[in-house]
Design goal:
The complex is a heterodimer of chains A (about 375) and B (about 400). With about 375 residues, chain A is of the alpha/beta class. Helices cover about 20% and strands about 30% of the residues of chain A. Chain A is built from ten helices and 28 strands. A seven-stranded mixed sheet of chain A has the order 5-4-1-6-11-8-12, with helices on both faces. In chain A, helix 3 packs across helix 7. The longest helix of chain A has 13 residues. Helices cover about 20% and strands about 30% of the residues of chain B. Chain B has eight helices and 33 strands. Chain B has about 400 residues and is an alpha/beta fold. In chain B, helix 6 crosses helix 7. The chains are: A alpha/beta (about 375), B alpha/beta (about 400). At the A-B interface, strand 14, strand 15, strand 16 and strand 19 of A face strand 16, strand 17, strand 18 and strand 21 of B. Strand 16 of chain A pairs antiparallel with strand 16 of chain B.
Chain lengths: ~375, ~400
Amino acid sequence: MASMANVLGLIFANMHEQTLPELTKARAMASVPFGSKYRLIDFPLSGMVNSGITQVGIITKQNYYSLMNHLGMGSEWDLARKTGGLHILPPYGRENAGMYRGRLEALAGAGEFIHESNAEYVVMTDSNVIANMDLKPIVDFHEKNEADITCVYGKVVYDTERAQLQTILCVNESGEVYDVLARPAISGEMNAALNVYVMKRKFLEDIIRESECRSLYSFETDILQHKLHDFKIMGYKYEKYFEIIDSMKSYYKATMDMKNRDISREVFSLDTPIYTKVRDVAPAKYGIDCSVKSSLVADGCIIDGTVENSVLFRGVKVGKGAVVKDSIVMQGAVIEEKASFINAVADKDVTITKNRTITGSADFPVYISKGGVV
Amino acid sequence: MNHIKKECVAMLLAGGQGSRLYALTQDMAKPAVPYGGKYRIIDFPLSNCVNSGIDTVGVLTQYQPMVLNEYIGNGQPWGLDRAHGGVHVLPPYETANGKSWYSGTANAIYQNIGFIDRYSPEYVVILSGDHIYKMDYSKMVDFHKEKNADATIAVLEVPWEEAPRFGIMTADENGMITEFAEKPKEPKSNLASMGIYVFSWQKLRAYLIENENDEGATKDFGKNIIPAMLNNKEKMVAYHFDGYWKDVGTIDSLWEANMDVLDPKVPLDLLDDSWKIYSRNPVMPPHYAGPQSRIENSMIAEGCEINGMIDFSVLFAGVTVEEGAIVRDSIIMPNSVIKKGAVIEYAIVGEDCVIGEGAHIGERPELIEDKSQWGVAVIGHHVSVSDKAVAPPKAMISQDI
């Protein structure tokens, strides 16, 4: 059994941004707001901490100011530590480094950090999956199977459009991965990679070094696909709740999932909580004649109107006579008196002015960008 | 260890029992009592210190300190986890001459002269953990310096009829305090002491030692130190404060002060970003208002799950209110569960309580003929109330019923 104190966590902050262009225009994928008070990175990062990992590197590429602001010193995740703890790894961490093209180049940029961690294992994840994942059984699985690489996957039923955004793993009965399909045009039940990988640190360092001198940069193409027969690659099936965020539609669906009490109790388990930055705002205030049903509401909201089946982030104001329905309203947004906001997503600090009506559909929620005044 | 000099050190008296809060302070000191949906009383003086630029705070504990100690921790939630200064919990201790509890407010500071001396401060601010208010202590220290005072006492004008409940200061036209009377039957002024003092440290230090050597003295600021300084004609000035300030030392005042957060006319803005009140935030998801919920005129913290009716109430983090339950004009402290059909009116329910199905806690005043029988009902922390049980108005329940 591996000790999780010997595991280094690595989180890629900027992967998959092209699937969510609206929300990642001014921020990294990892700092996309989610579920009323969180950022996407809170899920993999809290999962690592709850699994006993005490040193984590965050690999960034661009737009990482909001992420750094969110993470601070890592104290909310109990990662402000004398040894180990949280490290943000910017792309220009060494000479001749720069914009990396893929995971392998990014890892090369973080080579010194990885080496000095002295960890036995490395768990690397992206920031686009909502789950409360215990990594300990996955590391144990990796160790037990003496695998070179363990990939975590989940069973999904996707149409071709959605399958073409994913990496699909073909896994045999003994758990070995025998084929890796990148963005295939298939539909039906399939094994979607959750972009969580376990390797021995020394193994990872070897493939980084070798890839670098061969100018290889894609972990998925150059390692998982091309080295499929050279390495022992295992698939670990994750059976609890997860949702891959790969479009505005799936972002909306996953957000609405958090209102489901069973899912919420699992994802926000009190035993393995999801940590996030503390904002020190007062609890939400409900006014006279307001009505709020089937909704999630964060601290600092002031509600004088009607809210139904929606998710309100911190400090949202809903004016008298205003209606918010089937919508996501991010931090600091204001829905003024008698305005309607239905099937829509308001980014941070949006204002929907008096009497205005914004209506989208569940399939295609309207999105109002950060700071917008409508 | 070499200590960096601090101009100002704050000492927060947090050892009091708060006996008039009965069941609510049976297992925690008064400053640890929850307030305002996510705070504990001590968050107010601590946040005021930080916002006033005072980064060195001694918290004097004695009565039931566990909850308070754990809550303060390393001071990180208030930004008081500092390499130099920061927050320090100071319990009474044993010395070569024996052990001694803090025998009064002045004695508590006396026993910590060593702590204060390490920072060689010019001024010491003495605070208590009994009040809800926002105040910039740095302005009061500036006032103290400007007046070249030995002691500055914050005062608040109170209605004349309430003056006999307070320590009353009489001041001349220059703001110099001429007289001090503790709870006078016939007050000569309506300037009440807020229990906030700024002292020039060397002056206070001398008085503390003198008071300690006086065996008959009660070792109390109000009874000994202030009168002694007045007698010796030290320069003592009144610092007028006119913001929101509320003592939360009784069940009624604690209930009222919580209701004040719901009243837009009350000048205590907890959402004001320019003077934040910090607290140790629970790690919980946002609250969920279910399909059956009806919530109005209330404050609801994170982690709550509401399927009942809530009106004019304050719910702390992690409270569950099941279907058909009614909570009106009440305060529900963290993690309590109100089961189906229970009714809570004009009540304070402590932390981690379970109120059984169909139970009835408290009563509306209009339904009670003999008003002397009416009052806020209190369920102490960790109490289970069985299904259909009744706790009448004014009840003080500290064991399962």
